[in-house]
Specification:
The structure is a homodimer. A seven-stranded parallel sheet of chain A has the order 3-2-1-6-4-7-5. Chain A contains ten helices and seven strands. In chain A, helix 1 packs parallel to helix 7 and helix 8 packs parallel to helix 10. The relative contact order of chain A is 0.15. The longest helix of chain A has 20 residues. In chain A, about 45% of the residues lie in helices and about 10% in strands. With about 250 residues, the first copy, chain A, is an alpha/beta fold. In chain A, helix 1 links the parallel strand 1 and strand 2. The first copy, chain A, folds into two domains: about 160 residues, Alpha/beta knot (3-Layer(aba) Sandwich), CATH 3.40.1280.10; about 60 residues, Orthogonal Bundle (Helicase, Ruva Protein, domain 3). The radius of gyration of chain A is 20 Å and the shape is elongated. At the A-B interface, helix 1, helix 7, helix 9 and helix 10 of A face helix 1, helix 7, helix 9 and helix 10 of B. Chains A, B: One of its GO terms (biological process) is tRNA nucleoside ribose methylation. Chains A, B: Catalyzes the formation of 2'O-methylated cytidine (Cm32) or 2'O-methylated uridine (Um32) at position 32 in tRNA. Chains A, B: One of its GO terms (cellular component) is cytosol. Chains A, B: Belongs to the class IV-like SAM-binding methyltransferase superfamily. RNA methyltransferase TrmH family. Chains A, B: Homodimer.
């Protein structure tokens, strides 16, 4: 099993079926074959098959999802491809850094995902909020419009180079000790729901709109790449906080 | 003038006009715009224009040649893209090495060329013999068939990264905005003290020794490299938590 087998490419609401096919081809040339499609406009489709050329097996095994969350629920590191610099304060990685981070995580035995948004607008802010980091191909500022499959090609290429450079060996680092299992995306979402409830119980927002704060806290905790155990500890803190709010006659 | 302006991409006997268009687009996204076409089967062509998207200016300025030699006559370093290992005794460079070599030469003031053969068979041995080196994208041995424009994308990408790394191309960053000030160590310690007090107020440790948990939470929050603003938000959460504990008759 290659390290690249733990990397899934998630294409979200792809409009042109041809782009799905070219992306599958781009992936396969670089040794990636785990494609997840979230609500593609047209799939399966002749154009996708035609442009996949010899990579129709990647299309055949593609997993279809109606929404993003099920596509990433079991992923423990998510990197979103972003065509431009964003207002969201998410760590921005270069393609090379992103490849290293994804493979590092995969080396720890976890599933990782590389997310691509729809052709015209890329990932939405809501989708980026699921991500631990974003990756930006440093394109020509005067014309940064890479075709979807070209972006998939460049990032798959960097993943392959990183895998080759590392010898693709799953390297059990004797000094690292047993690493804690990173929290999955579903576990993080459960934590964020609990956090929202607790903030409500202690009346943190004081009647004001809490969206911005909530989003900031999401980013902070995603950035920390928490382990399952850390999430459990924080659930405990939130539970005790809610208990106090109840005793105080609130919540 | 950017160093990348001295790099020409030479497409030889391209069969599909769409590939010329996608290659132009791939080049422009990476800041390359000097395209030379040697005996293309169909050019100009609607399909080339369509797939060039916003890069039709690259097509408009493309230089057409009837044969290879005039396309490269004034070039002083030529690197040929090769899909597979060849019998020709030419130095084989990785994409990263090729980008470095091309830019090094360009830095010396010379024109350099990156050559791509026809879609089906790539560069002929005769064409490769014009080259100083060849470059091979280390593709999946089981499926190494990159589309022409995907190969152009990967190699243009490496050229851009090499140019950016050497400081010869500088990406302006108009959208980055002022970054938030990272929290100082003293601010983090202040936060950890407050966290300890709040955990005590909500009786999180239930009489047990909380040292391990406290240490874990420190690591978690330090790892997140919080900003001053994020620390302020969490102080607010802790203050409201303590308020609830007081209302509950504790703390």
């Amino acid at each position: 099993m290659s390290l690249l087998d733990r990397v899934r490419v998630v294409l979200i609401e792809t409009t042109q079926p041809g782009n799905i096919g070219s992306s599958a081809r781009a992936m396969k040339t670089m040794g990636l074959d785990r494609l997840h499609l979230v609500a593609p406009r047209l799939f399966p489709h002749d154009e996708a098959t035609a442009l996949a050329a010899g990579a129709t097996d990647v299309l055949d095994r593609a997993v279809l999802h109606g929404a993003l969350d099920p596509a990433i629920a079991d992923c423990q590191l998510l990197v979103g491809a972003s065509a431009r610099r964003r207002g969201v304060a998410l760590p921005e990685l270069s393609p090379r850094e992103a490849a290293a981070a994804l493979l590092d995580a995969a080396r720890g035995g976890v599933e990782v995902g590389l997310l691509f948004g729809t052709e015209r607008t890329g990932l939405s802010n809501e989708e980026l909020q699921r991500c631990h980091a974003c990756v930006r191909i440093p394109a020509n500022p005067a014309y940064s419009s890479l075709n979807l499959s070209q972006a998939v090609q460049v990032l798959s290429y960097e993943l392959r180079i990183a895998a080759l450079d590392s010898g693709e060996v799953v390297d059990p680092d004797p000094e690292a000790g047993p690493r804690e299992r990173p929290a999955t995306s579903a576990e993080m979402e459960g934590f964020f729901r609990h956090l929202d409830e607790a903030l409500h119980a202690i009346d943190f927002h004081k009647g004001k709109d809490g969206t911005t704060i909530t989003r900031r806290l999401r980013r902070l905790f995603l950035r920390a790449q928490m382990s399952e155990r850390e999430v459990a500890i924080l659930h405990g803190v939130l539970a005790d906080t809610e208990r106090m709010a109840r005793l105080a006659g609130r919540g």
